[in-house]
């Protein structure tokens, strides 16, 4: 396995600050806007953004967690049963501007499932999508992000891995993983 660093710890902090500023440009004080992080990995991005936004805006930013498990189009096709995560939305999304947040946009199938899952909670006025990494030219569906951390050219055999800091590592990094033949 080869691991190539595509976003360093320092760059990722700058990227998150920039994405937060872009959100503020469009959503001002967030009085009519909410954030939904996609389970399982989008919630880390959503929580980081929430902290930065709250620091800048100076008021609470409504942030929830959306589970998409039962809305995935491969739900019944998987050999290993999928484990559902929690959906936690403690606010009304009816008539709100919703920002869906995930770490990676690849085929677009997770986002399609998220749109489906979200509709059970109300009819938003508008829905946007924010991702850290947009794997270009990889879409199976006509879905694009509104806010992008970085676009990456990749092969279908590769995978993007977003690694968040732990007490041991204290660094956030994004890697492009290439599987190599085991000898
Ligand atoms: O655009 P997509 O092709 O849906 O891929 C993007 C999704 O994949 C990852 O999740 P996860 O690894 O849980 O999903 P996967 O099994 O579909 O790769 C990632 O956190 C995104 O949610
Ligand atoms: O590269 C990819 C594709 C889907 N999901 C990921 O987490 N990474």
Q: What report would you give on this structure?
A:
- This protein has 183 residues and is an alpha/beta fold.
- It has a single domain, classed as Rossmann fold (3-Layer(aba) Sandwich).
- Helix content is 25%, strand content 29%.
- The protein has helices spanning 9-27, 42-57, 109-119, and strands at residues 2-7, 33-38, 63-66, 97-105, 126-135, 147-152, 158-163, 173-178.
- The strands form two sheets. The chain has a five-stranded parallel beta sheet, sandwiched between helices. A three-stranded antiparallel beta sheet has the order 1-8-7.
- The chain starts with a strand and ends in a 5-residue tail after the last strand.
- The relative contact order is 0.20.
- The site of uracil has 5 residues, from β7.
The DSSP helix count reads 3
Number of domains: 1
Q: Biggest β-sheet: count, sense, barrel?
A: 5 strands, parallel
Distinct ligands, ions and cofactors found in the model: 1-O-pyrophosphono-5-O-phosphono-alpha-D-ribofuranose, uracil
CATH C-level class is Alpha Beta
The geometry reads as globular
Number of strands: 8
Strand content bin: 25-35%
Order of helices and strands: EHEHEEHEEEE
* Order of neighbouring strands in the sheet with most strands: 3-2-4-5-6
Rg to the nearest angstrom?
17 Å
Overall pLDDT level: 95
Task: Please give the alpha-carbon distance between the first and last residues.
Answer: 11 Å
Helical/strand content category: alpha/beta
Percentage of residues assigned to helices: 25-40%
pLDDT < 50 runs, ≥5 residues: none
CATH topology: the name is Rossmann fold
Q: Architecture, CATH level 2?
A: 3-Layer(aba) Sandwich
């Amino acid at each position: 396995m080869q691991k190539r660093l595509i976003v360093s710890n320092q760059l990722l902090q700058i990227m998150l600050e920039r994405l937060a500023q872009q959100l503020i440009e469009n959503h001002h004080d967030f009085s009519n806007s909410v954030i939904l992080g996609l389970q399982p990995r989008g919630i880390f991005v959503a929580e980081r953004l929430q902290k930065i936004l709250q620091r800048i805006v100076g008021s609470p930013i409504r942030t929830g967690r959306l589970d998409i498990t039962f809305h995935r189009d491969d739900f019944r096709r998987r050999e290993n049963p999928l484990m559902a995560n929690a959906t936690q939305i403690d606010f009304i999304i009816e008539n709100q501007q919703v920002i869906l947040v995930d770490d990676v946009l690849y085929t677009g199938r997770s986002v399609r499932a998220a749109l489906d899952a979200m509709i059970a909670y109300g009819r938003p006025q508008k829905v946007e999508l924010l991702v850290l990494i947009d794997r270009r030219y990889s879409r199976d569906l006509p879905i694009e992000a509104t806010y992008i951390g970085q676009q990456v050219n990749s092969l279908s055999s590769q995978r993007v891995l977003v690694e968040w800091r732990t007490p041991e590592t204290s660094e956030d990094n994004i890697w492009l993983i290439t599987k190599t033949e085991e000898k």
